[in-house]
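Researcher: Here's my situation. A collaborator sent me these components and asked whether they could plausibly form a single complex. I don't have experimental data yet, so a predicted model of the whole assembly would be a useful starting point for our discussion.
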Amino acid sequence: MSCPNCGAPVASTDTFCEACGTTVRRLGAAPTVDLGGSAPPDPPDPVEPVEPVDPDPVATATAADPSNPTAATALGAPVDAAAVDGTGPALLDKTSFLPPPRPPTPDPAVTAPVGPCAECGGPVGPDGYCTVCGVRAQSERDHWREDPASWVGAVCDRGVRHVRNEDGMATAATEPRASFAALVVCDGVSTSTRSEVASLAAARAARDVLDAARPSAPDDPTARAAHWGRHLTDACRAASEETRRAAEEVGDPGNPPSCTFVAAVVQDGALVTGWVGDSRAYWLPDDGVAVQLTEDDSWVTERVALGVPRAEAEADGRAHAITRWLGADSAVDTPRTSSLRVDGVAGWVLVCSDGLWNYCSPAPDLRALVSAMVAGHPEGNAVAPGLLAADLVAWANGQGGHDNITVALARLEAGDAERWQDATLEITVPVRLDPPDGAQSPTAGGT
Amino acid sequence: MAEFTAEVFQNEYLPDGGTDVHAIVSVTCRGAGAAGQSGGGDAAEVIIIDTSGSMGQPADKIRAARVAGQTALDRILDGTMFAVVAGTDQARVLYPANTPMLVRMDANTRMAAKLAVERLTPGGGTAIGRWIDLAGRLFSSVPVAQRHAILLTDGRDESERPEELQAAVQRAKGFFQCDCRGVGENWMVNELRYVSSELMGSVGLIADPGAMAADFDQIISTAMSRGVANAALRVWTPQGAAVQYLRQVAPAIEDLTARRMFVSDLIGQYPLGAWGDETRDYHVTVRVSAKGAGSEQLAARVQLVVGDTVVAQGLVKAIWSNDDTLTTRINPQVAHYTGQAELADAIQQGLAAKSAGDDVTATQRLGRAVQLASQTGNDEATNRLRKVVDIDDAVTGTVRLKRNVARIDEMDLDAASTKTTRVARTEEA
């Protein structure tokens, strides 16, 4: 970046310009929220919080329950999404990766900038650009960052090519590190109406369900994993409810708002993930095998599962179509889930929309990317996760920013889970079905 | 009421660390009305006719000038303030005689002025600077909103020193606009191009005196259709950025870079003169401070202003990206007009080298001109070049200098060198 006053180069970590002394801030960095609180204050466009769901201990077993034979998506066992959720062969055209022609004027109703320029503080013109430094003024819906705890941070960004940010995210976390975090990302389907409303409301509703279930989490690690598996299902249902509510408000029955769903809960060494669609979660340990914790509900995945070579499937025009999503036009409201024990292992939990993984999909590559970003900070892995998320978002924008980009991160350290490291936990991780280099073999048994 | 629109053509993607943003801003005006009829004030027109001795050799030149002057008077709208100047080594108000003031056009004044033009007789030298100064005095004799002159000469500015012409042009600059025409082959293209360029007008060669009336008709009709008295291009650039250059690229090349007037630290204004129903294209290049991939900012707001009112705006953007497929794309409009600007330079440099006896440079530059004219589909330029060089291969620009080229063909090529064509449909696709 450069100084808005004199144009001299400024390092991303600088708070003022070396050349002229002007106060500078990182491009698009929204004000960080107060640490320590569980759920951070919401960005604008507030939505009604949903009622926390009663954490019912006798809820039906979910996929995360190791006693449930259908729970783990074992490697090599193709997932018949249609059979699982009864949506049949319908495909939702999710071609948001393909750059749409950008209209000459952004829709002011959606992207109307608020307040002074985030880059230099100058007044923003009616054309949506700063009248001093020329930086495109972002509404807070276009770009915001959440830092719910010192070890958790996330950034949601419009990207370069899209006019609206239809990604939504919500986070919650407590101190100390590893005690509790919920990272939720919902990617609004850009071909449906007002998906940016649905995706944010859905993510927040899910986050609130998970946050409310935190106090009732059992101590026993196995029971805890089951607890989060159930509550991820509840959270997903709450998210689904929000998309239906948004559909009623929009009143477009032909093309109701819809979105993907992915939520990861970290609590004392348990890492439990639930998802619908192609937003992803990864576990990127500093040492050991990096794994993708989700398996896309996508046309490509299904074709590959049926034996079609991946290259051929990905070359198809429908490659980016998702087969399961949340919305009034979807019968799905239960996520597939996975759980992983990450006690005593240092690493990053990364939850993201396809705006990031489109540029870096395999888990080992993503870990290398995160490592490279970490290396750019003098504090190394102690870097604020929100800052690292911003780095990854900026990187994806640099690759073209074809889609909205959301990155949520939680940092775990080796000593975090000492007090329960004797516990045992079945680990079930669905990884990509065709590890590109064989490095992603199933890692049942964990550490 | 005139309506303006601005359209921007550019590749907004810059490579990581890139700094130079190119854009073509195309400004179109519709509903301009007629000069002096918009309620903002009267329009004024001064006709300047060379009556030096050479205009009588041959006599059909002065006869054609009389007809052309009368045609111009017929085209000037009633209500327009006007005068006719006869130019030699002195300047004289031909009409209204003995009163150096503009008069209002009506049936009576038109008739009287046409009679005065009929009596034009050649004799004396040529001092274009003095003609321009007299036109300036006439324009300031009554309050008007818009001032236009047409200047006809057949010779070089031989009765005064070059500094005198320059000083007169600088006094007139920004006060009135002037279209210049040279008849025959004894005038200097550079000299008249300097006058017309500074005074926001066009320059042209009239080879056949018989074509003079039609040319005057067209010039005055255009001037009379310019219902917008005074427009300007206003360019905002962000802090730390600067306009590298700004030039009009259609209908003709005109470098405006040096005409920037200070509005604020970030805003400069470039006077454009009067507007009618027309489209003018501008090539703006802005140098911004380099940013990293993923950054987006505005590189320029290009606005058309009438008075102090912004009537149209185009946004020139910069988006930095590592995606080569985006950053290496060349915008067809930018490429086309870059080629046309180089074409004008190549023609002028080639002709200058040729007249200096440097045949090697002349062949090389005119060859390049042939190549560019062919590439950009400027058939008019190709036809004019064909009279000066033999084209062996237009694609590679292989040419031979013609022997015994008519001077008037070289002058025509030179005078028309800045005329451009717009982007062909096929290039746009």
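Model: Some features of this prediction you could bring to your collaborator: Chain A has a mean pLDDT of 74. The interface with chain B takes residues 1-7, 9, 27, 120, 125, 127, 129-136, 160, 393-401 of chain A (CB under 8 Å).
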